[in-house]
Write a structure and sequence with these properties.
alpha/beta, Rossmann fold, binds glutamine
């Protein structure tokens, strides 16, 4: 019988519930337990794939091709474990399944209801999660905050599971914000008290309360919160904002959070081995010289849109004991003001993206990197931009473009894959998830990866057009990794440049803090040189 931990949020969303949760799971993982995570979100989109990064942050993709919430990324990175399709559900996805069953007549004329049908389906998904992963502990995060109408059935399912399986097997952790009022210079406990009470009105008493605040939290505040919300003083964990999210597991460890949870779940006393993480923090603390990367994109107003990529560039910096600073440059500003906006950059990164806006500015940035021998890393759209720039400037194909920007263009260096042409919906027609890449011997890619075949995660629609490959290669644009059939370009690089390389995949999705992806590691090294 696996143990279940439910995580709920209180007061506000976006307070770092995912990071707090991932940090606790990491402690359990380092106690040599196997841990599986699931997140249930209340909104009605079937998955976050079609949501704007402005509203929802980046879309995280799993190996098996599910488009999920960015918290699943935190889980993978902190736990160093791959999640799957069973890790992320929305109300939309669950309702879709129920309604399909109803239309098929599976309910034999019965009335289909939130309880027991929807709650029953959630239980099935939780069961499938822990049985398929064989985990000792299954962790289930309920998205949003308690009191949200759309999450009520999730709380009800969690309550029922605790009732059915017993308190030794199912516990609750509530993560809530302790706001600070500037005017009166005080922390206010009332919102937390209300959120705990709301949770109790659903029949759930949290076993642990993680108190998030922007400042240090005085001990008497914790006393007050514990007594007002009826939670054991020892189980109220203070979680002030730290200078690096990677410090959170250590901060929790210093409060023995892992040991306490093991004991609540009757998992016995276990040693928690923090050694790998301590090395990471040691590197962070000893990273001094600063490298500045220009990230040229179009969602630059919202850092969460490029969350994974930023983190992994930073972590690759730490591994070299350098502090990598990412400065966002709005691609449209380059169109207006030119590449002088990039003169300070040690390296240029063009991240993934969709749509035409800003792409001319990105092409200008790629040209600047090529002509000035500035290290360049292109990620997905960034690889397509690199190809278009090269075709325009080196081959002289002035109208070189992508079918995404010029559907009727005569020279679409980047085009849509044939089998996707007939797909017209906005979902389900991308190349998603893990695919093998075969690396060309003798290439920079081979040196970077130190391998001839690797797996990379994808999320894109368009591809490098092989019709242009020969003339591009003759001029020094090398396709250095492809799909096994040789048809799809996976990695491209320039012959006459110290580090101008780009991948059609998303290496940020598989990079881990304790062992960053080689494309990032080499990018940082190229900047140091
Ligand atoms: N828009 C491009 C495509 O669909 C790139 C996608 C991406 O960067 N993730 O192929």
């Amino acid at each position: 019988m696996p143990k279940l931990i439910f995580v709920t949020g209180g007061v506000l969303s976006g307070i770092g519930k995912g990071i707090a949760a991932a940090s606790i799971w990491a402690l359990l993982k380092w106690a040599w337990l196997s841990v599986f995570c699931q997140k249930f979100d209340g909104y009605l989109n079937v998955d976050p794939g079609t949501m704007s990064p402005f509203q929802h942050g980046e879309v995280f993709v799993t190996n098996d091709g599910a488009e999920t919430d960015l918290d699943i990324g935190h889980y993978e990175r902190f736990l160093d474990t791959d999640m799957s399709r069973l890790s992320s559900f929305t109300s939309g996805k669950l309702y879709e399944e129920i309604i399909m069953k109803e239309r098929r007549g599976d309910y034999l004329g019965g009335t289909v209801q939130i309880v027991p049908h929807l709650t029953g389906l959630v239980k099935e998904k939780i069961h499938e999660g822990f049985t398929s992963s064989g985990a000792d502990v299954s962790i289930i995060e309920i998205g949003g905050t308690v009191g949200d109408m759309e999450n009520e059935y999730l709380l009800e399912t969690a309550r029922q599971l605790q009732h059915e399986l017993g308190h030794d097997n199912v516990i609750f952790i509530h993560v809530a914000l302790l706001p600070y009022l500037m005017a009166s210079k005080e922390l206010k406990t009332k919102p937390i008290q209300h959120s705990v009470r709301t949770l109790m009105s659903y029949g759930i008493s949290p076993d642990y309360l993680v108190v998030r605040a922007d400042t240090d939290i005085p001990a008497d505040m914790i006393d007050k919160i514990a007594s007002a919300s009826g939670i054991k003083r020892d189980n109220v964990v203070s979680a002030p904002t730290l200078d690096s999210i990677y410090r959170v597991p250590l901060a929790f460890h210093s409060e023995s959070v892992g040991q306490k949870i093991l004991s609540s779940l009757k998992l016995g006393d276990k040693t928690i081995d923090m050694s790998k993480w301590e090395t990471l923090l040691d590197n962070i603390d000893n990273s001094e010289n600063v490298l500045v990367i220009a990230m040229v994109g179009k969602y630059v107003g919202l850092e969460d849109a490029y969350y994974s990529l930023n983190e992994w560039l930073k972590c690759a910096g730490f591994a070299h004991r350098r502090r990598v600073k990412i400065r966002f440059v709005e691609a449209e500003d380059i169109e207006k003001e030119g590449t002088k906006l990039l003169e300070w950059a040690h390296g240029i990164c063009i991240p993934g993206g969709f749509g035409t806006r800003g792409t001319e500015g990105m092409i200008m940035a790629a040209r600047y990197a090529r002509e000035n021998q500035v290290p360049y890393l292109g990620v997905c759209l960034g690889s397509q931009i690199m190809a278009i720039e090269f075709a325009r400037d080196v081959l002289g194909i002035a109208d070189a473009s992508s079918e995404e920007f010029t559907p009727d263009g005569a020279n679409n260096i980047i085009h849509i894959m044939d089998h996707q042409k007939e797909l017209t919906t906005k979902w389900g027609n991308m190349r998603l998830g893990q695919y093998p890449c075969i690396i060309r011997p003798g290439s920079l890619a081979e040196r970077v990866y130190g391998a001839t075949e690797v797996m990379e995660r994808h999320r894109h629609r368009f591809e490098f057009n092989p019709l242009y490959r020969e003339q591009m290669e003759d001029a020094g644009f090398i396709v250095s990794a492809t799909s096994p059939d040789g048809m799809l370009a996976e990695v491209v690089e320039l012959r006459d440049h110290p580090y101008m390389i780009a991948t059609q995949a998303h290496p940020e999705l598989i990079s881990r803090p304790t062992h960053p992806h080689p494309l990032f590691m080499w990018f940082v090294e190229a900047m140091v040189k």
